[in-house]
Amino acid sequence: MPPDPQSTFKALADPTRRDILALLGSRDMSIGDVASHFDMTRPAVKKHLAVLAQGQLITVTPKGRERINAINPDGFRAMESWLSTFDRFWDDRLAALKSAVEKDAP
Predict the structure, then answer these.
(1) Is it the case that residue 3 has pLDDT exceeding 90?
(2) Edge-to-edge order in the sheet of strand 29-30
(3) CB under 8 Å to 97, separation ≥6 — which residues?
(4) So what's the pLDDT on residue 105?
(5) Distance between CA atoms of 20 and 35, rounded to whole angstroms?
(6) pTM
(7) Which letter, b or e, does each residue of 8-19 get, where b requires 16 or more Cβ atoms within 10 Å of its Cβ?
(8) Nearest Cα to Cα of residue 64 among 36, 23, 32, 34
C-alpha cells in the first residue's frame, strides 16, 4: 500500500523523529538501542517509532523478543515522488530566469 502523505508528513514533523531516522540511517536498531540515544522513556521512544512506522518511513521486524527498526527506502521514494511535482515547478521557473539573464547578457 502506498504511504499516505499526511501520515508521512506527520512522522517527519517532529524533530525527535527526524533524529531517530538519522540514527537508523547508520544501522538497524531495537527500541532499547534507539532509546539509549535519547533522554526520554522507552515507551516515549516506542510511540515515536510507531508514528514513523505508520508513516511507512521505517519497518519493524520481530527478531526473537526484540523488534528491529530499520529505514524503509520505499517510504522515502514515495515521498520523493510526491515532492517531485514541486521540483518541476522550480525547474520551469529557474529555466525561465536563466533564459532572461542570458538574453540580457552582453
Answers:
(1) no
(2) 29-30, 66-71, 58-63
(3) none
(4) 78
(5) 9
(6) 0.79
(7) beebbeeeebee
(8) 32
Q: Is 58 exposed, middle or buried, given 0-12, 13-18 or 19+ CB atoms closer than 10 A?
A: buried
Determine how many CB atoms are found less than 10 A away from the CB of residue 66: 13
pLDDT in tens, 21-49: 999 999 999 999 999 999 999 999 999 99
CA dist 72 and 56 (Å) reads 7
Check: CB of residue 52 under 8 Å from CB of residue 66. no
Name the one residue in this structure whose C-alpha cell is 515521498. 79
CA separation for the pair 19, 23 (Å, rounded): 6
C-alpha cell at 69: 527498526
What grid cell was written down for 30?
A: 531495537
